[in-house]
Design brief:
- By secondary structure, this protein is of the alpha/beta class.
- The protein has a single domain, classed as 3-Layer(aba) Sandwich (Rossmann fold).
- A 10-stranded mixed sheet has the order 1-2-4-3-5-6-7-10-9-8, sandwiched between helices.
- Strand 5, helix 5 and strand 6 form a beta-alpha-beta unit.
- The chain is globular.
- It starts with 7 loop residues before the first helix and ends in a 9-residue tail after the last helix.
Amino acid sequence: MTVRRRSRAGVALLAAFAGVVTLLAACQASVEPGRKPASLTEVTDFGRNPGGLRMYEYVPNSAGAHPPVLVAIHPCTGSGPGFHAGTAFAELADRYGFIVVYPDANSEGQCFDTASSQALKRDGDSDPTSVASMVKYAEEHHKADAGRVYVTGASSGANMTNVLLADHPDLFKAGSVFMGVPFGCFPIDDYGSDGWRECSSGRHTETPQKWGDLVRDAYPGYKGARPRVQLWHGTEDDTLNHKNLGEEIKQWTDVLGVNPEPVLTDQPKSGWTRTRYDDDGEQPPLEVISVEGGQHDFPNSGMETMAISFLGLDRSGTQG
């Protein structure tokens, strides 16, 4: 009898091939036959909409029975579909199973109202109330987890993120702010003129107490927990000056009741200086990333992934 022996390389190759076949079979078994890939969808009737905004949603096939929600808000001149296509939030939603809601502005220049008296109070007749309706729609129609709702935005969307965290602290658990200004930075009666220049240039400064009072006045009497906040800004931002980051830090340390001296300072990436306040863990009350040489073009370079990690959307269960 002749015995044929396989070489070690041949055995390894066969084992690897068997592993690939097993993996492919498992993947095929996990995909529901006939199920279409997830896509961006417009929702035309989502509830009270005083701002006249449009709503787009992305519900990934990976979403579970009670998925978390991320509201992702575009900058001026942008759109909901544009922010969906130009950022990694939908890709991350596929990976981690959360719903993404993309508000779409209804104004000249596609900016959100973050300055009027109606915008700067809970349940006012303006854009923030429209966005809150979108969240409630997701909770009702997709059985989304009301305990895991988050918000992020860039530029005008960043300002709206700060406004939503102030107006609706009971609705959002945390927010990530890319290139924004403090809540209440634009004087209401000068919005779009001198008030814009004072704020955007970083010349509008207040004490921490004054900044904090503006947030507290948005929802008088609120005694519950405040959302955690992550702030991003580039040192070379020539649209919304980097000085605004310092004013935002003053505002949120006061609102959150944390020491203005950071407990951790590190560099998660070359040129990125990260500071954490009150807690040096992955989900502190306040986290700040200043990007050396960064301009007015965030998020980029993996920033979305860091934001998702801070918010807690890359892990199952409730946030830490």
